[in-house]
Design goal:
6-stranded antiparallel barrel; 4-stranded mixed β-sheet; alpha+beta
């Protein structure tokens, strides 16, 4: 919705397609069409079940669950409430002998409103590494969306001769076969 709100300020036409891609169209006169894409999604997990005050999750995309010990996350509930938690971990002393534990998020017992299917994302962690480099989660998404919005603003001021579609795609993190592949099949 944020991408659509921004695109509506500048584009000739804005819409969400059936895949959830956010599309802005600038009509051109050359007969050529250009498509510029940037993905909006990020790696995520999905709530499987809630039991004994813990939230058990599974990967929702291509992500390495071996890298999550004690990582802070946000659970995005259906009601809109964000529940903060941290990935649980088997103590290092037992990891050699125990089978891998199920992935779970410790939310301090605050399980109200958490349902199976709720998405779980890494908590925000933006920071400056030095005077010139910023680091954080999902920056590939954030910068590509910012570029799409800047292009929309630029095309509103200086109209392109070609028809241009600016597309914030979904589902790139799901085997890279989501929004961009759908766009390739559905745009005129």
């Amino acid at each position: 919705s944020y991408m659509q709100d921004e695109f509506k300020k500048y584009a000739d036409e804005c819409y969400l397609d059936k895949s959830g891609n956010s599309i802005a169209k600038f009509n051109g006169t050359s007969g050529r069409t250009i498509v510029v894409t940037g993905h909006m999604d990020e790696v995520f997990y999905v709530v499987e079940r809630v039991r004994d005050g813990l939230v058990y999750v599974k990967p929702g995309c291509n992500v390495d669950p071996g890298n999550v010990d004690s990582v802070p996350v946000n659970i995005l509930t259906e009601s809109g409430k964000i529940v903060k938690g941290v990935f649980g971990s088997t103590t290092v002393h037992l990891k050699k002998w125990e089978k891998p534990a199920e992935l779970f998020v410790d939310v301090g017992g605050e399980i109200e409103g958490i349902l199976p299917g709720d998405p779980v994302i890494y908590a925000p962690n933006l920071f400056w590494m030095n005077d010139h480099i910023v680091a954080g989660k999902a920056l590939d998404d954030r910068h590509s969306c910012a570029v799409l919005i800047q292009l929309a603003e630029m095309f509103a001021k200086e109209r392109p001769k070609d028809t241009v579609y600016l597309v914030g795609t979904r589902m790139e993190e799901i085997r890279m076969q989501g929004g961009a592949a759908y766009i390739g099949r559905t745009l005129p």
